[in-house]
Each structure stands twice: as C-alpha cells, then as structure tokens.
Amino acid sequence: MGDHPGVEVLLEAGHAVPGPAPPLRVVEVNFLGTRRLTEALLPTMEAGSAIASVSSLAAAGYAANVATVQEFLAAGDFAAGRAWCEAHPDELVGGGYGLAKQAIIVWTMMQGVTLGALGIRINCIGPTVTDTPFLADTIKTYGEGFIDAFPKPLGRVSRPEEQARALIFLNSDAASYITGQVLWTDGGYMGGVTTGLITRG
After folding, report:
1. Which of 117, 125, 132, 198 is the most exposed place for a label (fewest CB within 10 A)?
2. Is residue 159 part of a domain?
3. Choosing from 97, 142, 177, 189, which is the catalytic residue?
4. Is the pTM of this model over 0.85?
5. Mean pLDDT, the chain cut into blocks of 10 residues (201 residues total)
C-alpha cells in the first residue's frame, strides 16, 4: 500500500450485540483492546504509516455523546478504561456495544490530530448490516423481519469484502490526505437519515 516503509494496520476485533458477552467484555474487546494494540504498534510506525479500524453504524449518534466518550477516553489505559466502565454502568446500557463503537470514532478523530504531527494517518469505517457470522446472531435475536425491515438504499446487506475494500482504501496512498475520519460504509443509510428520507429506528 504505497512505496513508503510505513506500517499499515487494519484492525477488526468485535463482539456482536446483543450477545452472550457481558457489556464490560464487549467494551474491552471492541475498543480497549483495539486501542491497546494500536498504541503498542505505534513505536514501530514511521511517517507515512496508516491505521484503519472498524466502528459501526450503531455508533451513528456519537456526536451527541462526545463529552461522555472523551471522559471515558481520558481514563487512560486498558485497566483505567475498565475501571471507568465499572463506575459508569449506565453508559453500557444496550450491551456496551454503542459506547465501544462511539469510542472508536471519537478516539480516531482525536488521534487524527495527535498522530498527524508524526505523519501517521488514522481512520475508521462505520459499517451497516454485513453478511458475516454476526448477522446470524442478530437474526436469532431480532428475527428475520428485523433485517428485512432495516433500511437498505442499495437494496441488500453489505458483503464482507466491501467493508474490507474500504479499509484498504483508507490505508492506501489514494487516501493520503484523509485522517481522523469515519467513513460510513452503510450503503447510503446515513445520507438518508441526514436528509430525512430514512427515519432512524
């Protein structure tokens, strides 16, 4: 991905929601672990390196929760983040998934500024319903009707390779001036919500 000697990192670690994992574990896997791995790799990265991670369309309301998410992020390392979650159980309502994926977005935006000084880019994607094993779990929980009724401007759910291509793009030289961003890989859902053509359920 480019001619520079930098390291490109694509991260996907996740627990579906709702699922059998406790909310704290969901946050640990979906955000705290992602941040820990990224920070462990940063010393090996040179100018020109790029990082891309995976948030979710479930985090679309992050802008209304930035202050709380920044408080969570300011807690510090993995253990401190866990302690913050234990002290704020109300923020993990819904299984912890929303907080974790909002944290990916807000942290990415903040790191876009911090890492920019080092010449390192960082971005994330916000996928919609994607045909992965997690989808089967969602159908078991909500029923087939949930997926059928979910707004899909392109008329179908996403394929995994479509999400992977977006991550590859963000880490490629084609995105060399893009950093601190969330790319909504949602088949037009957020555009519909923003313009009032889709009602967020």
Report:
1. 117
2. yes
3. 97
4. yes
5. 44 54 95 97 97 96 97 97 98 95 98 98 96 84 86 96 98 98 98 94 66
Count of the separate structural domains present in the chain: 1
Output the domain CATH number for residue 167: 3.40.50.720
* Residue 151 forms part of a structural domain: yes
The Cα 17–Cα 19 span in angstroms is: 5
| 160/142 Cα distance (integer angstroms) | 21
For residue 137, the enclosing domain spans: 8-194
Q: Left, alpha or beta for 52 (phi > 0: left; psi -120 to 50: alpha)?
A: beta
- Cβ contacts of 20 within 8 Å, gap of 6 or more: none
Residue type for 187, please?
G
Distances (CA, A) of 197 to 62, 111, 153: 20, 33, 10
142 catalytically annotated: no
Domain annotation covers residue 201: no
Phi and psi at residue 158, to the nearest 5°: -75, 150
